[in-house]
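User: Hey, my collaborator sent me this sequence without any context and asked if I could get a structure. I don't really work with proteins. Can you help?
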Amino acid sequence: MLALVDLGLALEIESNINLGLWMILLVVKGFALGDAVIRKDEFFVAADKQNKVFWLLLLGIFLLLHVIFRESVLFNMIGTVAAIVYLVDVRPTLQSMQQR
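Assistant: No problem. I've predicted the 3D structure and written it out in structure-token form, which is a compact way to encode the shape of the chain:
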């Protein structure tokens, strides 16, 4: 009987961790999309980082897929990588161009 209680507790903890990670990744993707929305298209082209429409579509589609297909690991991984690439590579370049 004790093993069943421990198993239930372990599954509840795992579920809570998964939900927390899902929410964190949702915020990261939402932040990346929101940042891409406020940047000017000219900066994307000048920085040679694709264009604004490309990033808006990429980030927006994967944010939507993140919400719709909650359990899809593949969509979440691809979308997370896209958001991280935007935040780590594209965003700092755009910020430095805006400060000039």
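In plain terms: Helices lie at 2-38, 41-46, 52-68, 73-98. You can pass these tokens on to your collaborator as they are.
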